[in-house]
Amino acid sequence: MAAGERTLILAEGFSADTHYGKTMHGVLRYRRADVVAILDSARTGESEAGVPIVADVDTALAYDPRVALVGVATQGGRFPPAWRDLLRRCIERGLSIENGLHEMLADDPELRPLADDAGVELRDLRRPPPGLDCATGANLDVDARIVLTVGSDCAIGKMTVSLELDRAARERGIASVFVPTGQTGIAIAGWGIAVDAVVSDFLSGAAEQLVVEGRRRGGELLLVEGQGSLIHPAYSGVTLGLYHGSVPHVLVLCHRAGATEIEGSPGHPIPSLRELVRLHERMALPRRPARVAGIAVNTAGLDEQGAAEAVAAAAEDAGLPACDPVRDGADALLDAVLDASA
Amino acid sequence: MAAGERTLILAEGFSADTHYGKTMHGVLRYRRADVVAILDSARTGESEAGVPIVADVDTALAYDPRVALVGVATQGGRFPPAWRDLLRRCIERGLSIENGLHEMLADDPELRPLADDAGVELRDLRRPPPGLDCATGANLDVDARIVLTVGSDCAIGKMTVSLELDRAARERGIASVFVPTGQTGIAIAGWGIAVDAVVSDFLSGAAEQLVVEGRRRGGELLLVEGQGSLIHPAYSGVTLGLYHGSVPHVLVLCHRAGATEIEGSPGHPIPSLRELVRLHERMALPRRPARVAGIAVNTAGLDEQGAAEAVAAAAEDAGLPACDPVRDGADALLDAVLDASA
Q1: Which of A181, A305, A341, B30 could hold A145 in an S-S bridge, CB 3.0 to 4.6 Å?
Q2: Is the Cβ of A182 closer than 8 Å to some Cβ of chain B?
Q3: Which letter does DSSP use for residue A41 in this model?
């Protein structure tokens, strides 16, 4: 999303889902001012974060959108067949599409000519930049403090924690830059590489490019958006490639209060936070040791007392500072990060 | 390489290099009977494993090759510019090309029409199969004992160790299948997926498909070719994705005798074997614990006494059985693998 671009979020069937609708929820949190409507026929007439929810593209046109953002993230990143009608209609009505799924719309033999005829853009946020290669070691020369969010699972708020830390740091006058590594972060920040969409061999090279670029943009503190989890049966490779390629000095471990098992992977337990801290520190490259500075606890859905108890339990378990940066603000966690990188 | 297909290995400038020439050396070791000549103008008139080395494509034609195999693996997997002339000449002379680099020859706007005119094939070994997705959990249902080679670095013989274990197992009448995960293994075995060339998000799914396919091919013991290293600054993501996606019961840790640093990455130390064993066992998914059964020591270049000392030192360091399966045969290591998976 370009700055100020009037945006319709397409979230058909998923606007109430914080897991599969995480792109929508992230954009609503950090680019709210540019969102004019949300499309989800199951919730017509409702609203989300004050944004009206509409039934179809024609109704949405009353809000004068210029771009339709695909607001859902499906497992595997492909389009459910029913979505193609929706995309076609958007294009016919003159909307550009911004898409973060693995399926590349600009290569689509049906949608590409439609978009050309309509004079609209098909922007694939996950398309890797050309010329990627393996990491060269230039990451170790980046003159900035690098902070990576890691987690006990996917889709538990690593991007949000990085964005909240970045905001808190900038409010203190620190030259901080958020480094986007996934489609939602890219939609929000307007740059970045979706590391899960690059050829595996170039994962570390993509991560390296991102921290080099973050420094070039003036970052003295780089808040790198984490991906996946070292203990996730499907996504751990992306996590480790990003970890080693972004060469963080400091990690922030994110955890959803009460989670004991990887979501969607029954029988895959989440170990204790203390064990996760050790595992992550141990997996650092010897050339760039990393410390976990603190725990970011996602307490969404808990009441005040429940949240306070969950944060206290996490701090106790990990033996580290803990907070929920969304509920409590990110200042305490930022202090821990700055202490650890001093 | 199809069975019995007369093969010219293209190794210009690299035929003496065991690192960048590892595809050539692997194919010479396991598909020697099908190799009729090697092209490397710097070593014209010499031979390698009894195969004549020739200066150019026209000279090679005397040996009646049907396919030219790209025998080098460059970092990043792209073609040095000088190679394009060589490929063009092969195509013009009626040879199909088998290529394991990241650059896809079948998509090349210059070589594709040339090959069509000449009626030859451009086979890209690293091209991912269509329709890959994330792992589904079907890997955990594979009714076979799964053995993965891991290592302290890249290009130290993980594929060779898997192939030697597979051969030793089949000699004992065990229904063993070698599971290829990289271009050289695919050239040798004629099937497989180069996991480093798949989109990162689908690493685990590709690894899952491979063990499912290994079982479908009758394997009760699956020897999965390892890739990279958990401690390699550029390739660790591929290693972990393959590890978690192939859900091994048993690991064999490969190490080059005397190596103390990652090759090509100065300042990146290799920890002790004991520490590497612990790290690898710790990184197993809790749902599928894995034990390191033994150490495969690459003693190439050492004399008999030096090799024996290196193997003894590795066994002592790791506290596990150790041998060099190329020098000593794989039986002792196979015993350790079978014990560990009993």
Answers
A1: A341
A2: no
A3: G
Are the CB atoms for A210 and A138 separated by under 8 Å? no
Which residues, 6 or more positions from B275, have their beta carbon under 8 angstroms from its beta carbon?
Answer: none
- Residue matched to tokens 């398309």: A127
Cα nearest neighbour of A278 on chain B: B282
Beta bridge partners of A296: A254, A323
> In chain B, which among 232-251 make CB contacts under 8 A with chain A?
232-242, 244-245
What is the spatial distance between Cα B159 and Cα B227, in angstroms, rounded to a whole number? Answer: 8
The pair of structure tokens assigned to B184 is 């050289």
Burial pattern B110-142, b for ≥16 Cβ within 10 A else e, equals ebeebbeeeebebbbbbbbeeebbbbbbebbeb
Chain B closest-CA separation from residue A228 CA (Å): 10
Residues A17-41, buried b or exposed e (16+ Cβ, 10 A)? ebebbbbbbbbbbbbeebbbbbbbe
Judge whether residue A76 has pLDDT over 80: no
* Per-residue pLDDT band at A51 (split at 50, 70, 90): very high
B307 burial level (CB within 10 Å; 0-12, 13-18, 19+): buried
* pLDDT value of position B332: 96
pLDDT at res. A75: 61
Cα–Cα dist A63/A336, whole Å: 43
- Average pLDDT of the residues of chain A: 95
Per-residue CA distances from B38 to B29, B99, B135 (Å): 14, 15, 40
- Closest-CA residue to B139 (of B194, B85, B79, B210): B210
Residue A137 sits at the chain B interface (C-beta within 8 Å): yes
In this prediction, the residues of chain B whose per-residue pLDDT falls under 50 are: none
Sign of CA dihedral A184, A185, A191, A192: negative
**ipTM at complex level:** 0.94
Whether the CB-CB separation of B76 and B196 falls below 8 Å is answered with no
d(CA A105, CA A102): 9
pTM of the entire predicted model = 0.95
Which residues does residue B278 pair with via DSSP β-bridges, in sequence order?
none
Cα–Cα distance between A74 and A34 in angstroms, integer?
Answer: 24
**C-alpha to C-alpha distance for A54 and A60, rounded to whole angstroms:** 6
CB count within 10 Å of CB B338 equals 18
Distant-in-sequence, close-in-space partners of A1: CB < 8 Å, separation ≥ 6: A7, A27, A31, A34, A67, A69, A98, A187, A188, A190
- DSSP code, position B340: H
